[in-house]
Amino acid sequence: MVQEKQIIKIVLPREKHWVGDGFYVSSIFSMHSEDNKHISPFLLLDHAAPKFFPPTDQKLGVGEHPHRGFETVTMAIKGEVEHRDSSGGGGKISTGGVQWMTAGSGVVHDEFHSRDFAEKGGEFEMVQLWVNLPAKHKMTKPRYQSLDKKDFPIVRLQDGTTKVKIIAGNFGSSFSPAETFTKINIYEVEGHQNSEVKLNFDDGTNTLILQLAGSSFIGDQHLDKGDLGIFDRNGVSINLKTAEDSKILILNGEPIEEPLEAYGPFVMNTREELMDAFRDFQEGNMGSLAE
Ligand code: MN
Hints:
The protein has 2 helices and 26 strands. The model has no long low-confidence stretch (mean pLDDT 95). Helices cover 6% and strands 50% of the residues. The termini are far apart. The radius of gyration is 19 Å and the shape is globular. It has a single domain (7-282), classed as Jelly Rolls (Sandwich), CATH 2.60.120. It is mainly beta. Residues 65, 67, 72, 109, 111 line the site of manganese (II) ion (MN).
């Protein structure tokens, strides 16, 4: 067995586009790309890089829209977002917090900058990740996990300054409180220049590394700010070394090897299920938001 996982591709930052009027994002990866086999169980990742928003009394974000068949995981890296969904889930997440929404059988929701944040204005940075559900859980009851910064364990490495925040799964003997349907690890690593981080993952799992800030090395491969490193499934370890002060997002998970039919806000296994999703949404079976 190969010990060290190898980077098979580095994807450079893509052009930004607006999602609603509140999120100016780069789509870092998507299930619709040729790399999809190396991305599963993750489906999509949008990064709203740090951007200053002046104070406003307007509601910035995305209005009512549906989802079915997967989970949306929103990480507030800086700033505050508010969310409401038709299953009664909702709340506000602030810097360092995460909202983990299981759309399952279907919800309608909206996503906005919080009123407090919008009124004060400030720097805003956010990541939204879509996590697939295995076929047997696609129609699970919707669920909403609201996790504050203080809920996540932070492991400080031996050098005393490098920090690993465990957003999902475990790092050594420290576990995230986030509940997941399949085996997933998500870490946010923060370290000064020349920090060394050794990661251990199961053989056969997919791993992705997004350099949010700074730059780093994996072996002799260099990741600049905004770059995504996609790893081969073989191997069990990764040695990461920062070249500058860095913030890095690491995603690892057991691939879900099932057919994928996705369109817009729905991710199912067959075309028929996709049609059902559209019909159920149009007929109001995914609920609506209370005014
Ligand atoms: Mn959404």
